[in-house]
Description:
The protein is mostly helical. It has one domain (3-173). It has helices at 3-27, 51-79, 88-111, 123-139, 141-147, 150-173; strands spanning 38-39, 42-43. Strands 1-2 form a two-stranded antiparallel ribbon. Helix 1 (3-27) crosses helix 3 and helix 4 packs across helix 5. The structure holds cytidine-5'-triphosphate, potassium ion (K) and magnesium ion (MG). The site of magnesium ion (MG) has 2 residues, from loops.
Amino acid sequence: MAVLETLVIAFWAMLPAYVPNNAAVLAGGGQPIDGGRTWGDKRVLGDGKTWRGTAMGVAAGLALAAVLTVIAGDVGSALGFDVPAFTPLAALGLAGGAMLGDILASFLKRRTGRQRGAMFPGLDQLDFVVVSLPLVALLDFEWFREWFTLEVILVVVVLTPILHVTTNMAAYKLELKNEPW
Ligand code: CTP
Ligand code: K
Ligand code: MG
């Protein structure tokens, strides 16, 4: 597979997992998922994980997957190679897995004594990949195997932290986010 092709497929296939976190930042607020509950003397998840942010994040990821699926054929023809159309289960695994990964990361942050908004290098950049890819494989293995070749997975692992750092820095500069990570 050509390098450009691998890059485009990796980015396209991950878009429904990339967008939920950003949508959650824009839509966040309201009731925290943990309802304010603590475990020991620390919050279970914290005020940064809300029902509204999570629901809107998943919805944004699913909506984007639907749009990409509609245009995949035309984009593939224009590029000269196929790009993924998303099955409903693949879309759910990517969008839902991304939000779940982010929530699990907050759970780990609280357990390790980090306050809301504190950074956790590595986890912050890859939490959604670590959960969304296995979830997609679980929900629709056929689809996963077709698109997530070893090369694509390698590109995702390298590309995701770079994209994460740049988008969060931009969101911070635009005053959409409280911290640049
Ligand atoms: N957000 C949300 N629900 C989610 C994820 C994010 O409402 N499931 C919103 C919250 O307003 C949150 C903001 O997006 O403050 C930024 O997300 P994130 O950086 O993941 O949360 P933090 O506030 O940094 O909290 P944590 O330390 O738990 O990651
Ligand atoms: K996060
Ligand atoms: Mg944060």
